[in-house]
Amino acid sequence: MIRDFFIQQKKRNDDFASEATQSSHLNNKAASSQVRAPRRIRVNRLLFLFVLVGAVFSVSGIQPVPTHAQEDFTRLILGEIFDGQDAPVEGVEIIARTGDERIGETLSQPDGTFILHLEKGNFDNLTLDFQRAHFASQSVALFPQEIAQIQKGGTVTLSPLTLTRKIGPVFWIVTIIFIAMLAIIAAGRLHNTLAALLGMSVIFAISYLGHPLSDKLFIFEFERSLHYVDWNVIFLIMGMMIVIAVVERTGIFQWLAFQSYKISGGRIWLLLIILMFVTGIASAFLDNVTTMLLMTPITIQIAIALGINPLSLLMPEVFASNVVGISTLVGTPTNILIGSYGNISFSDFLVNLTPGVLLSMLGLIGYSLYVYRKDYRAAGEIPEKMLERLAERGQITAPENLKKAGWVGLGMILLFVFGEHIHLLPSVTALIGATSLMVWIKPDIEEMIEAVDWTTLVFFISLFVVVGAVQEVGLISVIADGIGKMVNGNLTLAMILIIWLGGFLSTVVANIPFTAAMLPVIGFLTATVPGAESKVLFYCLSVGSAMGGNGSLIGASANLVTAGISERAGYPISYVYFLKKGFPALIVTLTIATLWLLIRF
After folding, report:
1. pTM of the model
2. What sections of 22-86 are H helices per DSSP?
3. Residue ranges per domain, the chain?
4. N or C: which end of the chain has fewer CB within 10 A?
C-alpha cells in the first residue's frame, strides 16, 4: 500500500511539474514559478516522513490510527520558498484562502520548506498568500487540476517560489547603524564591545519602540535575533580561553622567549626568525591577542638588553601572529567565524592554508630583516646580570600542570582533526578539553571563570545580532548581488577580489566585524560561482581578513594589544608608524598567499 502511494504521488508530481512549466502560479506570471526538479525531490522527502510513520505502525503491529486522524494526512500543499540568492527563507507566513475565508495557514521552516494542511470546505478559487517582513507579499492561484486533486483528499507539491526583497526605510536605518558602528570601532571613539552593544540596542529600540508607530520600522523580534548568534563560536572561544588561562600560568611562553635568545647565540637575525616562528606557531593554536600579551613583555626586555628599539622585534612578531594564525581553525577569531559558518574543519584549514602561510612567512621574514636592518646592526650583547634576570623570569613555574596541559592539548588537537568524522563540533571539543583540564589540575574555578574574556564574548554576541539585522533587511543580499555581477561566474576573479578587498578593507575596519558581515556574501558566491564548491572563497576571506590586519593599527585586536603594552613600556606605536611598516608587509604576504591559493585551487 505504501509503495502504491509513492507511485501515485510521483505520477501526480510529474504531471503537475509538466503543467507548471507551461504556465505560471503567479498572477503576474513571474519567473519564480519555473520548476526546479532537484528541490521538488527534497520537498517530497517531507511527505515521506508522514508515510514512514504509517509504515512503522503497520510493521510493529500497532492498531491503525482512527479515520479522523488519517484525514490529517490529506489535503496537503507542500512547497519551498527562496530569496533572490537561492537561499531558503524562514518564517514566511503562508495563508490559504477561498475568497475572504481562511482555510489553512503555516510558516516556512529554516530550510525554506512548508507543509500546509487545508481544512474541509469549498476549494474553489483557492489562493495562497505569502507574507514576510522585508519581502514583497505574493499571491499564488492554484490550477484547476491542483484544486481537483485537493478536493479528492490528495497532496499537491508546488513549484519553488522566489520572494523579492523589499527595500524600505528600515533598510536604510539598519545600514546607517551598521556603518556607524564600524566607523566608531575604526575611530576608537568607543570600546569595540560598547560600540557593538550600542548598535544592537539601537536596533532593538527601533524594532520595539518604532514598530508600534509604523510597520515600516520593524526589523526583527528578540527571539528571531538569537537565530543569528553562532553559539558554536561563542562556546569555542570560551573553552579555549579557559585552556589558555591554565597554560599561560605555567610560564611556558616566557621560557620559550628566553630559550629563543639562547639558541640564537646573540645573533640578532637568527633571534628574529626564532621569535617570529615561536609567535606564529603559538598563534596557530592560541588566540593572537593572548599570544602577544604573553610574548610582548619578555620581547621588550630582550630588546632593551640588546640595546635596540623593541619595535624592531615587536612589529615582526605581531605580523607573524596575524599571518600564521590563519593556518588552523582556532588560530584567529576570524577563522573561528569562517569555520563555523562554512562548515570547514580543523584539518581543512591545516591542509589548504599551511603551505601558503609558510611561504608568506618566509616573505615576511625577508621583509622584516630588510626594513629593520639598521636596528639589528646596532645590537650588542646582553650583560651578564641582565641575562641572569631574564633567565629567572624565563622559568617554567608549574611543570606538572604544563605536562597535564600538554596531554589534554594533544587530545584536543586529535579531536579537532578527526572529530569531523563523527560530527563533533569544535566548540564541544574546546569545552571537553577545558573541563578535563580543570578537573585534572583542580585550579581555583573562580579564577578560571574570571580568566574568560567576557568582554570579547559580549562583543561577538552583539556583533552577531547587528550583522543579523543587516541580513534581515536585505543589505547582505544587495552586496552579494553586486559582487556576483562583478565576478560574473569567474572563479579566479572572485578569488582575487575577495582576498584583496578583504585585505584593504581590514586596514580601515576591524577584521572581525568585516568577516562576520562578509560570510553570507561568501556563502552566496560559493553556491553560484562554478568551481567555488571547494569552499576556496572562504579560504580567500580568511587570508584577506587576517593578513589584512597587518595593514594598520586597528586592523587586528592583537595590534592594539601590542601597542598598548609597548606604550606603557615607553615605546609607543602610532597609527602612522604601524601603517608605514605594516602596509608593505600586507602587500608582500597577500601577494604570496594569492599565488598559493590560485595554484592550490
Report:
1. 0.69
2. 37-60, 67-70
3. 2-162, 167-205, 231-249+398-462, 251-397+471-600
4. N
